[in-house]
């Protein structure tokens, strides 16, 4: 699968515009799967490269890919399913220990804020 990135022209990590995708003809492969982001949505295209493709086969592959991506999205949305590393935030200059300390502080702060909001409401959820 070839992921082309965000084609909406959003700035890259260093503030530069997103690069235009390079042409690729799929040489050496029977099927080309290309993906990119457009208006916040993942767009995936299946293309037969070598010879004609059976429409039923391509439809089956598209359905299987959709089901796999749906399953992946559901997994990623579960609490505790994801994690981050310093390489996810290269401009922050954080090491692993620094990032862990920051995330702990943010989690505590968010939990304290939520607890404060809960204590400011009566039993029916109406603010006092």
From TrEMBL:
Region (Disordered): 1-21
Low complexity bias (residue ranges): 9-21
UniProt-recorded name of the protein: Uncharacterized protein
Organism: Micromonospora olivasterospora
């Amino acid at each position: 699968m070839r992921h082309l990135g965000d084609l909406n022209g959003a700035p890259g990590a260093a503030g530069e515009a997103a690069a235009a995708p390079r042409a690729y003809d799929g040489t050496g492969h029977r099927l080309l799967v290309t993906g990119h982001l457009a208006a916040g949505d993942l767009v995936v295209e299946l293309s037969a490269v070598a010879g004609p493709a059976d429409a039923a086969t391509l439809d089956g592959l598209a359905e299987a890919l959709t089901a796999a991506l749906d399953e992946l999205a559901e997994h990623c949305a579960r609490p505790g399913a994801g994690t981050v590393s310093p390489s996810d935030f290269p401009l922050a200059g954080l090491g692993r220990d620094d990032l862990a300390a920051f995330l702990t502080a943010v989690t505590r702060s968010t939990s304290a804020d939520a607890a404060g909001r809960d204590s400011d409401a009566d039993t029916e959820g109406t603010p006092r």
